[in-house]
Amino acid sequence: MGILDHFSELCSLPSDHRRSKKHKQFQTVEMKVRIDCEGCERKVRKALKGMKGISTVEIEPKLNKVTVTGYVDPKKVIQRVRWRTGKMAEPWPYVPYDVVPHPYAPGAYDKKAPPGYVRDVMDDPRLAPIARASSMEERYSTAFSDENPRSCTIM
Where are the transmembrane segments (predicted)? Predict the structure, then answer.
């Protein structure tokens, strides 16, 4: 073993100190983008076509919904659509109507929501108290339920 080999061992780093690159997870990114015509649809598709990591792009013009799947960062996808198209893009704010525990609360849900969807207000701190039913409301609504006819003697 020569002197150069000895110094190279002293100067080299062990293998566990090397930088490890984080791999992105495969995920689905849903966003709301206003799509008026086929030209808008092509513009959004073209903006996403060159992005690294994207597997598929699905566009539903009637719902103004764009679904992207692949090894991507959701914030970067939304930012790219905004920057390349000049259109307002935001994360998909709606959930299916069946998923919401207390489906109707005046003032909480968006009237512009597509059919069968309501705005997801459980994460919004301003609107969450409006959308959630109080324990008193739940008690009265279940007392006169068709699913439990023997719960109330008045009927």
Answer: none
User: Under a CB-based contact definition with an 8 Å cutoff, are residues 50 and 59 in contact?
Assistant: no
Q: How many angstroms separate the CA atoms of 49 and 85, rounded?
A: 12
Domains parsed from the chain with CATH numbers: 27-92 (3.30.70.100), 95-143 (no CATH)
**Rounded distance between C-alpha atoms, residue 154 and residue 142, angstroms:** 14
Q: What single letter denotes the amino acid at residue 103?
A: P
> Whole-prediction pTM value?
0.61
Tokens for 22, please give them: 């984080």
